[in-house]
Amino acid sequence: DTGVSQNPRHKITKRGQNVTFRCDPISEHNRLYWYRQTLGQGPEFLTYFQNEAQLEKSRLLSDRFSAERPKGSFSTLEIQRTEQGDSAMYLCASSGTRTDTQYFGPGTRLTVL
Amino acid sequence: AQKITQTQPGMFVQEKEAVTLDCTYDTSDQSYGLFWYKQPSSGEMIFLIYQGSYDEQNATEGRYSLNFQKARKSANLVISASQLGDSAMYFCAMRESTGGGNKLTFGTGTQLKVEL
Fold it and tell me: Could you read off the pLDDT of B30-42 as tens digits, one per residue?
């Protein structure tokens, strides 16, 4: 049983550059979530997909952030014009329709210099 | 307003002893879910245990049990027979059924250190 995978695991970029992260959920899961976690804090919700539909977006998700899940399988999270405050761990999770439990991937750690 | 409160930033326990990690929550929903996750230094969030608001019995999963006190709005995690590998950050989270969709709201976590 393959878990949630995320790529890349680490990303270092310069301020102003664009970055894109990928998340592959557990294969039978139709719900996919993105969270952001900064040092010393719990994860904070960013956005949620059910199949290919983006059903909810947090106010944390500024105009520079966009997420897609075009075929209802993998998802991408893009950050344009990165800022130092974007440095964080970006976590993806997925869940099925039978259970509320969200299973997380290993995360992508972003460092903006 | 903070919806999940974890008041213990750090806890120490001796190997083979039991430890309780505290979590209180705030919601006006009748239907909600409470979760505990473990986050080792590698960063991955590992699901441990789930309690639904309508579940009459406390949830148990192996060495983990959830002490659910609905009237007090508390959902404490009990780890029995602690092992060195239990050293990690532990997060309590809540899923509310209304207004929040399926998103989880997390507490600030408790860092657990298991000592010999």
Answer: 889 999 999 999 8
The answer to whether the Cβ–Cβ distance between A45 and B42 falls below 8 Å is no
Cα B3 to Cα A49: distance, rounded to the nearest angstrom: 23
Note if the bond before A70 is cis, omega within 30 degrees: no
CB-based contact (8 Å) between A67 and chain B?
no
Tell me how crowded residue B80 is: count the other CB atoms within 10 A of its CB.
Answer: 13
Nearest to B108 among A42, A45, A103 (CB): A42
Pairwise CA distance, residues A32 & A34, whole Å: 7
Asked if the C-beta of A102 comes within 8 angstroms of chain B's C-beta atoms, the answer is yes
Tens digits of per-residue pLDDT, B70-116? 999 999 999 999 999 999 999 999 998 765 568 899 999 999 999 99
Rounded to 5, what percent of chain A is helix, strand, coil? Answer: 5, 50, 50
